[in-house]
């Protein structure tokens, strides 16, 4: 079984920054890809950022240049540094890890006010 716990969400004004963190435990290894999705009210869940064990990353076009994903494979943690936040970044952010299937955290709410 795999457990993921996110932290770091909150309310911030447009232009501000937040850092999300996710800690994974259970039957996973440092080779497992990890990342973040988000879901805004009324929208489907969308990929925000993904990182492989080797550190290769990819981002949604809407966050490129503003968000940075990183991981500590030894600790099985993944972080998302979010800068220059916009109201459209508002949503619930979910951490995931891929270990045969996707495992998800419960999500952390990010609200960006204009």
Describe the secondary structure blueprint for this structure.
Elements: E1 2-7, E2 10-13, E3 18-26, E4 34-39, E5 46-51, E6 57-59, E7 67-72, E8 77-82, E9 91-98, E10 102-104, E11 108-113
Parallel strand pairs: 2-11
Antiparallel strand pairs: 1-3, 3-8, 4-5, 4-9, 5-6, 7-8, 9-10, 9-11
Question: How would you describe this protein?
Answer:
By secondary structure, this protein is an all-beta fold. The protein has no helices and 11 strands. The N and C termini lie far apart (40 Å).
Individual helix count: 0
Question: What pattern of helices and strands is seen along the backbone?
Answer: EEEEEEEEEEE
Query: How far apart are the first and last residues' alpha carbons, in Å?
Result: 40 Å
Instruction: Quote the average pLDDT.
Output: 94
**Unreliably modeled segments:** none
* Rounded radius of gyration (Å): 13 Å
Beta-strand fraction estimate: over 45%
- How helix-rich are the residues, as a percent range? under 10%
Structural class: mainly beta
- Write down the overall geometry: globular
How does the major sheet shape up?
7 strands, mixed
Note the quaternary state here. Answer: single chain
Count of extended strands? 11
């Amino acid at each position: 079984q795999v457990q993921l716990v996110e932290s770091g969400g909150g309310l911030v004004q447009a232009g501000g920054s937040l850092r999300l963190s996710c800690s994974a435990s259970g039957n996973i290894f440092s080779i497992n890809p990890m990342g973040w999705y988000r879901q805004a009210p009324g929208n489907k869940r969308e990929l925000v950022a993904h990182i492989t064990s080797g550190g290769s990353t990819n981002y949604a076009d809407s966050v490129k240049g503003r968000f940075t994903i990183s991981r500590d494979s030894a600790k099985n943690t993944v972080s998302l540094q979010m800068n220059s936040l916009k109201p459209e970044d508002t949503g619930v952010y979910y951490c995931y890890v891929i270990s045969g299937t996707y495992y998800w955290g419960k999500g952390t709410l990010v609200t960006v006010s204009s």
